[in-house]
Sequence to fold (146 residues):
Amino acid sequence: MRVVLHQPEIAGNFGNILRTCACFGLPLSVIEPLGFPLARKDVRRAAMDYGARVELSRHPSWADYAASPARRVLFTTRGAAPLTGFAFEPGDHLVFGSESSGVPDAVHAACDVAVLIPLAAGARSLNLSNAVAIAAWEALRQTSVR
Fold:
């Protein structure tokens, strides 16, 4: 199981996701460009001392990341499969897009399945770090990895 962020834009969200990955024991891949420098104090503040506990892989492009074999599960508001009925597998890569625009159509098409986290009527989307925490917890719960 791995968390994958496609071009995240907000340092605080990235720091929170680093902390979530550290607490759940999940590796994290980040696909550049980022909307912030990784050394920024906002990342360090949000991640606290957990950042060093995460296996972090940086990829200069989607093509570079996609060279690794995995089932890619995209979390998107355009998802067809609701999280409540989706079956995860232990080797899944949980893919999330940027805060403002999600993922480009080519990345969407390259993922094996698009999952939707159900929200209340009229709600547009969750904060990225919250969506990662919900998805990661459910994936780990189902696969008994934790």
Notes: Strands lie at 2-6, 28-31, 56-59, 72-75, 81-82, 93-96, 113-116. DSSP finds five helices and seven strands in the chain. The mean pLDDT is 92.
